[in-house]
Amino acid sequence: MMTTRAIDSNYYLDSQKTRTPSATLDKDDFLQILMVQLQNQDPTSPMDDSKFVDQMTTFTNLEQVMNISEAVQTIAGKQTSMSPVLQYSHMIDKQVTYNEYDEKTDEVTDTITSKVKAVTQKDGYAVLELANGKSIYADAVTKVSNE
């Protein structure tokens, strides 16, 4: 009498490819699904043209949204590293008020208002060049006005 042993599942399960599912699909995944769908359709009743056009439209919209998202991320990244001159250029021709301090006591000695003529940069900080001939750092401004 011949006996058969049960097949040990470890032999064939170990050789199986494991796939890690992803929570999101990208445009390549979408295109791959569409291609598999086209390859495996029934030749006697092919996919309806309108469904195919709908899927291609969805794919195009997905690609455009992803491109817009990348562009917005690029712009947002550049804004954080924007030049101080550009950040403060809107202050040109505005009246700014700032305090002058006594160097020894660090007390306010005067409050001065002057018009901004130009914006420059020094050591990574914006410097406002004023009509009164002085230059101050932009963070020293206590008030900005049109007059």
Automatic annotation (TrEMBL):
**What are the alphabetically sorted keywords of the record?**
Bacterial flagellum biogenesis, Cell projection, Cilium, Flagellum
Pfam families membership: FlgD
Supply one GO BP term: bacterial-type flagellum organization
InterPro entries per record: FlgD
Q: Which domain of life is it from?
A: Bacteria
The record's comment on protein family reads: Belongs to the FlgD family.
The name this protein carries in UniProt is Flagellar basal-body rod modification protein FlgD
